[in-house]
Specification:
The protein has about 325 residues and is of the alpha+beta class. It has two domains: about 5-155, 2-Layer Sandwich (Beta-Lactamase), CATH 3.30.450; about 170-320, Reverse transcriptase/Diguanylate cyclase domain (Alpha-Beta Plaits, 2-Layer Sandwich), CATH 3.30.70.270. The protein is about 45% helix and about 25% strand. The chain is built from ten helices and ten strands. It has helices at about 10-35, 60-65, 80, 85-100, 150-170, 180-195, 210-215, 215-235, 260-275, 295-315; strands at about 40-50, 55, 110-115, 120-135, 140-150, 200-205, 240-245, 250-255, 285-290, 320. The chain has a five-stranded antiparallel β-sheet, with helices on both faces. Helix 7 (about 210-215) runs antiparallel to helix 8 and helix 8 (about 215-235) crosses helix 9 (about 260-275). The radius of gyration is 33 Å and the shape is elongated. The N and C termini lie far apart (about 85 Å).
């Protein structure tokens, strides 16, 4: 701001404003030191005169956003910053300040994204408190400190994504990319705890040993992958498909009564049979299906295994359910 361009009255007003701000800076210094911040990314303190709606701040607060503080027109208002808040962060940020000004919270504290001059967003962590009240107890002056936490948020995001990938690996069968045994048990237990009705299908490949013996284990692995792909393609989007072990698979069908589950299992059986037509070894599947009736997980797995055994005993390549 060029002081030479101000009128005498404007200059006097500006001097008075600076004197007031200097007084407030001295008053709030001890209070602000109690916030005890030593983080990296410190962009300095800011001061909001509520009566004039002007904000004084360390130039870093705006130069980090790409602005040249020497070319900015004063007074710089509170809205200069709030209008640049990310739409998803605007309301919670404004509410945090309202809660502090109303006395609901002793400190204003908020994380938000703020738009740079280039249109990108940076993450700021903001914290402050009222340092002066009028005779009626209304807030007059707020002082705070702001940090650029963009890099911290980037690291947190990468760590979260890494943890999600790691969690997925612990719940995924590495060969077929279906749910693994641990994931299947967790899903069954969750449905049981929530008392969600479901049906369960257990699939076992017929003649799979012949594939390994005649064509080799690589071909056997490829067969398992192809079966998994067929299951994934022709299952309901709510179904949970997993590899139970070896050439056995499970399909958990939430909100599916036995009759519908048997129809779904029969459809998958037919698609698997069709998929392996004209192969050197004819691969089909036998399927057992049961409906959950509040028994234990061990009990329903035993029941579905019995139905699968029955399908094998009746000649394989069929669905048996009860």
């Amino acid at each position: 701001m060029n002081l030479d361009q101000l009128s005498k009255q404007e200059l006097i007003q500006r001097i008075r404003q600076l004197e007031t701000e200097n007084q407030e800076l001295r008053k709030d210094s001890e209070q602000m030191d109690q916030l005890q911040f030593s983080w990296t990314g410190n962009l300095g303190r800011w001061y909001w005169d509520i009566q004039t709606n002007s904000v004084t701040f360390n130039p870093l607060k705006v130069t980090t956003l790409g602005y040249d503080v020497t070319s900015m027109t004063e007074p710089i208002t509170y809205q200069f910053f709030t209008e640049k808040l990310h739409p998803d962060d605007y309301e919670q940020s404004m509410q945090a300040m309202r809660d502090h000004l109303s006395g609901k919270h002793p400190v204003y504290e908020c994380e938000y994204r703020i738009r740079t001059i280039a249109g990108e967003y940076k993450w700021y962590y903001d914290r402050g408190r009222i340092t002066r009240y009028d005779a009626e107890g209304k807030p007059l002056f707020v002082a705070g400190i702001v940090f650029d936490i963009t890099e911290q948020k980037r690291i947190e995001s990468e760590l979260k994504e890494s943890n999600l990938r790691l969690e997925k690996l612990t719940l995924t069968d590495p060969l077929t990319q279906l749910h693994n045994v641990r994931s299947l048990y967790l899903a069954l237990e969750k449905l049981k705890q929530k008392k969600t009705p479901f049906s369960l299908a257990m699939l076992d490949l017929d003649n799979f040993k012949q594939v390994n013996d005649q064509l080799g284990h690589l071909e056997g692995d490829q067969t398992l992958v192809e079966v998994a792909n067929v299951m994934r393609q022709f299952s309901n989007e709510m179904d949970i498909c997993g590899r139970y072990g070896g050439e056995e698979f499970l399909i958990i069908m939430p909100e599916r009564p036995l009759k519908e589950a048997i129809i779904q299992a029969e459809s998958i059986r037919k698609h698997i049979e069709k998929h392996f037509t004209n192969r050197r070894v004819r691969v089909t599947t036998s399927i057992g299906v049961v409906e959950f009736k509040r028994e234990s997980i061990a009990a329903i797995l035993q029941q579905v295994d019995e139905q699968l055994y029955q399908a094998k005993a009746l000649g394989k390549n069929r669905v048996v359910g009860r």
